[in-house]
Write a structure and sequence with these properties.
This protein has about 375 residues and is α/β, with parallel strands linked by helices. The protein is built from eleven helices and 17 strands. The strands form three sheets. The protein has an eleven-stranded mixed sheet with strand order 1-8-2-3-7-4-6-5-9-10-11, sandwiched between helices. Helix 1 (about 10-25) packs across helix 6 (about 130-135) and helix 10 (about 320-335) packs parallel to helix 11. The chain is globular. The model is unreliable at about 220-240 and about 260-285 (pLDDT under 50). The structure holds threonylcarbamoyladenylate (TXA) and magnesium ion (MG). Threonylcarbamoyladenylate (TXA) binds near residues 62, 118, 122, 144 and 239. The site of magnesium ion has 4 residues, from loops.
Length: about 375
């Protein structure tokens, strides 16, 4: 693949050019430790609208504002808030910089285009040093959704951004592969009557949030049962969509082979197992009619047969590596033209909560 001219190394020179492009209302591909963002000046209404247009995102789905310091972040929220909000803000903002987005009542100066007309705003200080250096050059917050076309897999390299938005962006700053690889955890500050609530699982787990707050944090499964591009109404807490992050290749979740004997498909094994075995079987002439890709989190205990290819996300059995490699491998699978992807199912604990959440969405194809 030819290098894309708009991908720029993260030198002082190019960061200054990126800052200038943002000041002029242009879009820039921004590396963060979670995923790449499609960044624009969050105080410029036209620039924010350009994000929605480029992504094909409905205007009722709000954006996250990114800044480099907690002082700048605090100025985006309501001037006056309750002791409860204030306490939670102090504790949660102490986890920044990092893969955490905090939602609270917004300051009157925050554009309605950013919040989709709602009275709350989502704010994040990313940990990526290049993102923070760029944000430090700016005196406005940067609005940035994940730099994927609506409903497609989020980008974890500069090339992914160029693949989707090569024409729309002034430049993409190359910050390497994203270290976390999944979108940030989103938590609401709540109110005196409502606990802080996780709207999207991510790199900062509910356990970490609970420990930081010293009180229970709700793990919400509030999801909106529509595709991102089909939503019509404005909702108080837009949160998430039930189908999102999908590769084009149909994806199904299967149980990982943990080393126990493979059941005979003709026996009274559970239906799911039988189906899987028959799907994976080669045809009578020895060829595989459908090209099925098997993605395993960790190296399988024995060779797997019946698949066109078997890919392993972490040969060192590291969950963070699974998360970091997941999106890039789903995009690669799409490029290589398989008929179906079968990927490990996982338990929703720790970072596994975020992985399980993304995969369950990706496996829910509507058509
Ligand atoms: O890791 C991330 O969060 C990345 C990087 C670039 O920072 N950004 C990201 O943005 O994932 P986006 O737009 O793809 O996802 C943000 C989610 C959306 O589901 C949106 O509905 C929700 O946050 N959101 C934003 N503002 C909100 C608000 N005020 N209330 C409820 N949900 C909100
Ligand atoms: Mg997104």
């Amino acid at each position: 693949m030819n290098p894309t001219p708009k991908i720029s190394p993260p030198t002082e020179h190019f960061l200054r050019r990126a800052a200038e492009a943002l000041r002029q209302g242009q879009l820039v591909g921004l590396p963060t430790e979670t995923v790449y963002g499609l960044a624009a000046d969050g105080s410029n209404s036209e620039a924010v609208q350009a994000i929605y247009r480029a992504k094909g995102r409905p205007s009722n789905n709000p954006l996250i504002l990114h800044v480099d310091t907690a002082q700048k972040a605090r100025r985006l929220f309501a001037e006056q808030w309750s002791d409860v909000e204030d306490h939670r803000w102090r504790q949660l903002s102490g986890l920044w910089p990092g893969p955490l987005t905090i939602i609270g009542r917004k300051h009157s100066s925050v554009l309605p285009e950013v919040t989709a007309g709602g009275d709350t705003v989502a704010v994040r200080i990313p940990a990526h040093p290049i993102a923070r250096r760029l944000l430090g050059l700016l005196d406005f917050p940067v609005a940035a959704p994940s730099a994927n076309v609506s409903n497609y897999v989020s980008p974890t390299t500069a090339q992914h951004v160029a693949d989707g938005f090569g024409r729309e962006v002034a430049m993409v700053i190359d910050g390497g592969s994203c270290e976390v690889g999944l979108e940030s955890t989103i938590v609401t500050l709540g109110t005196e009557d409502e606990s802080a609530t996780v709207l999207r699982a991510g790199g900062i787990t509910v356990e970490v949030l609970t420990a930081a707050l010293g009180e229970a944090v709700l793990d919400s499964d509030r999801r909106i049962d529509l595709r991102e591009d089909q939503r019509t109404e404005t909702l108080q807490a837009p949160g998430q969509f039930s189908q999102h992050y999908s590769p084009r290749t149909p994806l199904i979740l299967v149980d990982a082979d943990r080393g126990e004997p493979v059941p005979d498909p003709r026996s009274d094994a559970p239906a799911e197992r039988r189906e899987k075995a028959s799907i994976a079987m080669p045809t009578a002439d020895g060829s595989d009619a459908r090209r099925i890709l098997r993605i395993c989190f960790f190296p399988p205990p024995r060779p797997m047969s019946g698949y066109a290819e078997v890919w392993v996300l972490s040969s060192s059995k590291n969950w963070c590596e699974v998360a970091a490699n997941l999106y890039a491998e789903l995009r690669r699978a799409d490029r290589e033209g398989f008929d179906r992807i079968e990927i490990d199912r996982c338990e929703a604990n720790g970072i596994g909560r975020a992985i399980a959440d993304r995969l369950s969405r990706a496996s829910r194809h509507t058509s």
